[in-house]
Each structure stands twice: as C-alpha cells, then as structure tokens.
Amino acid sequence: MKTLIIYTSQTGFTKKYAEWLAEKMNADILDLKDAKKKNAGFFNDYQAIVYGGWAMAGNLVKSKWFLDYAPSWKDKRLAMFCVGGSPNDNPDVETALKNMLNDEQRKYIKAFYCQGGFNYEKMSGPSRLAMKMFVGTLKKRRMQPRMKRKWQR
Ligand SMILES: Cc1cc2nc3c(=O)[nH]c(=O)nc-3n(C[C@H](O)[C@H](O)[C@H](O)COP(=O)(O)O)c2cc1C
C-alpha cells in the first residue's frame, strides 16, 4: 500500500514522529508546505494518507488543508495524528481528539494523539510568549488555594 505522511512541525517533535512512521511504513514523507505545492493528481498514487501536526490551544495546527481534501479521498485509508505537550493520560487529550474531527469526518478518518514536548529554543517568538502567559496563568491558579488558606487564618 503506497502511503504518504504529511506533517507540520514547529520545534521538531511532529517531524520526528512523521519520520518514524514513514520509516516503519516505508512511506513517502512531505512537509505540508511542499504538499500544498502539489496538484490534486499527485495524491492519486497513494492508497493511504496521514496528516500529523502539533497541538495549539486544544486544536490540531493547520489541519484544514487535509480536511478540505479528505472528502475526495474517501477511497483511501486516512489518519491524523496530533502531537502535544500534554502526557498521554491527560484528560485534555480526549477533548483534543474530539475537537479534531466532526462526526462525519470520524467515519472515514482515524485520529491519534502522540506525546511530544516543549523545546523553547526552537519556538517562534509569539509561541514562546503564548507559553509564558499560559504557564503564568497556571501558576496563579495553583497559588489561589494557598492564598485562600492564608486569608482564612
Ligand atoms: C502556543 C502554544 C499552544 C500549545 N497548546 C497546546 C495544547 O493545547 N495542548 C498540548 O498538549 N500542547 C500544546 N502545546 C505544546 C505543543 O503542542 C508541543 O510543544 C508540541 O510537541 C510541538 O510540536 P512540534 O515540535 O512538532 O512543533 C502548545 C504549544 C504552544 C507554543
């Protein structure tokens, strides 16, 4: 079965998963930027197409391109994987998997989650800033019960 793995990665984790998959499945691999340059006929050769991207605020980054194509690929095996910083057993993962596809898409696309990580050095400026704000909010939330106890004393 001729397989194509398409991925988007900012700091390298999704790229690594895409490479592992491509190696295991003896598949071709393309960065989404390059996949977008291909015309529709290019994909006719493939019996299976997988899209992998990273999680941002509970969503799979740049999945629109793949999901727009997907209805015309119903004769193929289709899958998506989302790489996030959350551990596999985090309850948010289930929510992210639900958000990835609607009921109709779920009938013919399989969705998976893979744990990635945080590489601040490779993050873009806006991403680093967003993470800083996110971590700040988490810290404040964790502080609240302690502060409450102090006030009650
Ligand atoms: C702005 C921003 C938002 C993020 N939101 C989430 C999230 O909602 N859930 C999650 O599990 N990880 C989240 N992450 C973590 C990334 O998904 C994680 O670092 C991933 O491994 C990045 O993949 P990449 O190395 O392929 O770019 C976020 C990261 C950034 C920068």
List cofactors, ions and other ligands. Answer: flavin mononucleotide
The total count of strands amounts to: 6
Number of helices: 6
CATH class call of the largest domain: Alpha Beta
Percent range of helical residues: 40-55%
Q: What's the gyration radius in Å?
A: 19 Å
Give me the CATH superfamily of the largest domain. Answer: Flavodoxin domain
Short description:
The protein is 42% helix and 23% strand. The chain is of the alpha/beta class.
Give a quick set of tags describing it:
binds flavin mononucleotide, 42% helix, 2 domains, 6-stranded mixed sheet, 6 strands, Rossmann fold, 153 residues
Structure description:
- It is a single chain.
- The protein has helices at 13-25, 32-35, 64-69, 91-100, 103-106, 125-152; strands at 3-7, 28-31, 48-56, 59-60, 77-84, 109-115.
- It has 153 residues and is α/β, with parallel strands linked by helices.
- It has two domains: 3-122, Rossmann fold (3-Layer(aba) Sandwich); 124-153.
- Strands 1, 2, 3, 4, 5 and 6 form a six-stranded mixed β-sheet that branches.
- Helix 1 links the parallel strand 1 (3-7) and strand 2.
- It is globular, with a radius of gyration of 19 Å.
- The N and C termini lie far apart (68 Å).
- Bound molecules: flavin mononucleotide.
- The site of flavin mononucleotide has 22 residues, from helix 1, strand 3, strand 5 and helix 6.
